[in-house]
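[recover] target loaded
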C-alpha cells in the first residue's frame, strides 16, 4: 500500500529557493551600489574639471583686462603673490575697475577682489609660485600669441607703477602633481 503524496514543497526545496533568492538580491545590490558609486565619482570628477576650467577662464579674463597705473594702481608681482588692477564684470552686467590679489591661503589659491570679495580658484594646494615673462624669446616660432620659446626670459619679481609683464606663469603644486598655467597679459597693462 502506498501513501498518497501531498502536494507542496519539502523543507530542502524551500531553503534552496530562499538561498538562491538571497544571492540574487545580494548581487543586484552590489551591481546597483557600484553604478551609484561610479556616478558619484563621475560627478565629482566633472565638478573638479569644471572648477579648474572656470578658474582658468577667470584668470585669462582678469589678466586680459589688466589695468596698470592711474586708479588701477601698480603691478606688484612677487614670487608667491601678485597684485594688480583689472576690469571686472559685475553682477549687474557692467565693468568696474577692481584691485585683485592672487595668493595662497592655507591650501587654497584665492583671488581677493578688493577688500570684501574673494574667489577660490584651486584647493588642495601645497605651493604656489609666480614667474613674470620679460621677453617671449622665439615665441611659437614667430606666430603671434604663440607660447614662449626656449630662450624666453622669466623673472621672479615685477614691481612697476606703469607696466606689466608679457605673461604670468603660475605653478600650482598639489600633493602629487604640479600644474603650470601661463596667462597672457592683455594690452600689457
Amino acid at each position: 500500500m502506498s501513501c498518497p503524496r501531498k502536494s507542496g514543497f519539502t523543507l530542502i526545496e524551500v531553503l534552496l529557493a530562499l538561498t538562491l533568492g538571497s544571492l540574487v538580491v545580494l548581487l543586484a545590490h552590489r551591481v546597483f551600489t557600484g553604478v551609484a558609486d561610479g556616478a558619484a565619482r563621475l560627478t565629482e570628477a566633472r565638478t573638479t574639471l569644471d572648477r579648474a576650467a572656470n578658474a582658468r577662464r577667470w584668470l585669462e579674463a582678469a589678466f586680459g583686462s589688466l589695468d596698470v597705473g592711474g586708479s588701477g594702481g601698480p603691478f606688484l608681482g612677487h614670487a608667491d603673490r601678485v597684485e594688480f588692477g583689472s576690469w571686472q564684470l559685475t553682477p549687474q552686467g557692467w565693468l568696474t575697475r577692481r584691485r585683485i590679489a592672487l595668493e595662497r591661503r592655507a591650501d587654497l589659491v584665492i583671488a581677493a577682489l578688493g577688500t570684501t570679495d574673494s574667489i577660490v580658484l584651486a584647493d588642495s594646494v601645497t605651493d604656489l609660485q609666480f614667474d613674470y615673462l620679460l621677453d617671449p624669446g622665439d615665441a611659437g616660432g614667430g606666430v603671434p600669441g604663440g607660447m614662449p620659446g626656449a630662450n624666453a626670459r622669466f623673472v621672479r619679481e615685477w614691481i612697476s607703477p606703469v607696466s606689466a609683464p608679457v605673461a604670468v606663469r603660475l605653478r600650482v603644486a598639489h600633493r602629487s602633481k604640479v600644474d603650470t598655467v601661463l596667462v597672457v597679459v592683455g594690452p600689457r597693462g
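[recover] notes: The mean pLDDT is 86.
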